[in-house]
Write a structure and sequence with these properties.
single chain; pyruvate-formate lyase- activating enzyme; Arc Repressor Mutant, subunit A; 2 domains; globular
Length: about 450
């Protein structure tokens, strides 16, 4: 690892789960009417051939994890569950009335928040309500995020019986000092029990989420966490860089100081060490931040050149349309994005008024669509080409100029009208994507919007 490269490329930048990125959406000209038309068009084009994806945001947590930047509501009151589930099902009914034809669900993911905050009975009520208005694709995949401390056998059995075969457990780090700093105390035994129970029940893809760059975290902590993870051999691992964005509203990341975080060079060393240890254990790197065993669908998708990336992260299959249900969820029609309101009370009010609860979004123009394809290619396949004139934009002269410097640093190689990210450059793929981000290049943010790339 070259520290000079870390210093040079450790800048604030997007994670590119979308393009344009959310801060560059054209909210001013966006309307709910436009979003409905965008989604209807996409649905008519793709539902029959590939189905749709559903993301359902379940925002409740019993305690605040201070590393988390997600939209959540902290409460120990579980009487909030049923009203929320009913509101989500009402929102789903509004979409089903809009779309011409019965939706075919290919992917469904429960995220949060803490999905396992909800009782198995209420989760069953939710999923059965969703499926009552939809058909399933032949190769559908249902997944959910489970908290090892409160994911019970009943949760796992109930969701498995409803068609869920993939679960990811948030581990973060096993060191007690780090866990205390991020307010996420969970012993290895809890993770072990949840993992082994899921495997016993029949889940075919079990994932663990690990984070590097956390407060007080060291390379030794990362090595120990990977060692314990190897004892359970989950099918896939998300090895994330901690995104320090304490300026975002509702974020709990002010429980420690900036100086408590590893330096950029130290953080990159943690990543390189974790990557090396995971590789030795038989895991293959998938895109950015993800690793999988050869038997997992994510690895197979990479081998088949079918890897896709959206607001749910990397997925093993692509759907053109993705509908997000629940507070703060983001939907994607390929031609446009739409985000739901973030407040639970406002969400309830709009849904009760038969209004799809979108409050902002972006309709992509022809340039957006071209750049989006290039960034998606880079994030999923580490290469892209503009040999096809339909994938060319005027700014390529400026883009190539920036890429030439990255070529000199050994991060990319040029091909005929295209580039390929080198193994050395793969940890800097966000920086490569930034060279293509013409909206970012035209207007650099005047305030802090993104986490650091390293």
């Amino acid at each position: 690892m070259c520290s000079s490269l870390v210093n040079k490329y450790n800048v604030a930048g997007p994670r590119y789960t979308s393009y344009p990125t959310v801060p560059y959406w054209d909210d001013a000209s966006f309307s709910l009417k436009q979003w409905k038309a965008s989604l209807s068009k996409s649905f008519e084009e793709s539902n029959a051939s590939e189905g749709i994806s559903l993301y359902i945001h379940l925002p409740f947590c019993e305690r605040m994890c201070t590393f988390c930047g997600c939209n959540k509501r902290i409460t120990k009151r579980h009487d909030v569950e049923e009203p929320y589930v009913r509101a989500v099902l009402k929102e789903w009914s509004l979409y089903c009335k809009l779309l011409k034809g019965r939706p075919i669900i290919k992917e469904l993911h429960l995220g949060g928040g803490t999905p396992t905050f909800f009782s198995p009975e209420n989760l069953e009520f939710l999923i059965k309500g969703i499926l009552r208005r939809a058909n399933l694709a032949k190769d559908y995949e249902f997944s959910f995020e489970g908290h090892p401390n409160n994911t019970t056998r009943a949760h796992l059995e109930t969701l498995y019986n409803l068609g869920f075969t993939r679960v990811s457990f948030g581990v973060q780090d096993y060191n007690e000092a780090v866990q205390k700093a991020i307010n996420r105390i969970q012993p290895f035994e809890n993770v072990k029990q949840a993992t082994l129970t899921a495997r016993e029940i029949g889940y075919t893809s079990i994932g663990h989420d690990i984070i590097f760059g956390l407060p007080f975290q060291t390379e030794e902590h990362v090595a120990k966490t990977v060692e314990l993870t190897k004892a359970l051999m989950p099918d896939r691992i998300a090895f994330y860089s901690y995104a320090h964005v304490p300026w975002l509203k509702g974020n709990g990341q002010r429980g420690y100081k900036d100086e408590d975080l590893p330096s950029g060079a130290s953080k990159r060393a943690q990543y390189e060490l974790g990557k090396k240890l995971l590789s030795k254990a038989g895991y293959h790197e998938i895109g950015m931040d993800h690793f999988a065993l050869e038997g997992d669908s994510l690895f197979k998708a990479m081998q088949a050149n079918e890897l896709h990336r959206n607001f749910m992260g990397y997925t093993a299959s692509k759907t053109q349309a993705m509908i997000g249900l629940g507070v703060s969820s983001i939907s994607d029609s390929w031609y446009g994005f739409a985000q739901n309101v973030k407040g639970i009370e406002e969400y309830y009010h709009l849904v009760d008024q038969d209004i799809i609860p979108v409050y902002r979004g972006h309709i992509l123009n022809s340039e957006d669509l071209i750049v989006r394809k290039h960034i998606l290619n880079l994030m999923c396949h580490f290469e892209t080409s503009w040999n096809d004139q339909s994938l060319y934009i005027e700014e390529f002269k400026d883009i190539v100029f920036k890429l030439r410097e990255m070529e000199a640093d050994g991060l990319v190689t040029f091909q005929t009208h295209g580039i390929k990210v080198t193994p050395k450059g793969q940890p800097y793929v966000r920086n490569v994507c930034m060279a293509f981000d013409v909206l970012l290049q035209r207007k650099q943010p005047s305030t802090r919007l993104f986490s650091m790339t390293v």
